[in-house]
Each structure stands twice: as C-alpha cells, then as structure tokens.
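Changelog entry: the Urease accessory protein record was regenerated in this release. Current contents:
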Amino acid sequence: MHKLFEIVGHRSDDGVHDRLHDLEHRGLVVRLVLPTAELGRRRFRATGSDGQEYGVALDREAVLRDGSVLRLDADGAVVVEVEEPATLTLRATSREGAMQLGWHAGHLHWRVRMEDDLLVVLLDGPAADHLARIRPWLDRGAVEVVE
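Regenerated structure tokens:
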C-alpha cells in the first residue's frame, strides 16, 4: 500500500498544472476518485486508477477537495477527483409544493443546488428515501420528479 500524508498543492496552482500535464503525457498520474462524502475524512483507503491501494492520513487542518495533489515528483503524481454524486431533480408545480419542497430541503439538510426552477438534490442515500418525505405533494401533483 502506498501511503500519503499531505496535500502538496492543487492541480490549478501555478507550476503544478504544467508538471501534471507533462506527467499525464507519460502516463504517470494516478487518480483517486472519491465520493463527495469522503472529502471531510482525514484518514481513508482508496484504490487508485492504477489499481493500487493508497492509504491517506492527513493533518486535521488539511482541506481535501477536487484537484488536491497528494504526491508530485519526477516519478509521478496522485490527484484527488470527486465523483459526481447521484442526483434527484424536482420541480414545484404550485406555491404549496414550492413551500413544502423548500421546507423539507432545509429542515432535512438536503444538499441541493438550484437550476432555474429546479431543485437538484445531491443524494447521500437512496432516492426513494427522499421521495418518501415528500410523497403527499408528489401524489397531489404539487411537486414533480424531472427525469
């Protein structure tokens, strides 16, 4: 297992980007693809794009994010990439639906983003669990699921 203990930069940092680009052309960049929920952890194991196991143990102050570089040297690099979370897209079709949808999203601490008149829920569990919470408004047509 390869062990990584620090964030050495970000792929957009001056100098880092060019070095990563050169290493990518030589096939020496390993990607650790992590779910968004893992970014808050400081100690974890992950399998890299090279099929190897990586053990990560970061300081408490470290802030892991998409593009964090955990290793960068002449022999290669290890870069964190965030996996796109599954989403559930909802639209309120009435004022009642909008109020209920907004209340539930806030009260239940759903991670959301707004796209025009749509509420996109970033799922951290089965979509059915989220839909069960708003079932009465779905059944009445006050809220609809957008495919």
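The two ends are 41 Å apart (CA to CA).
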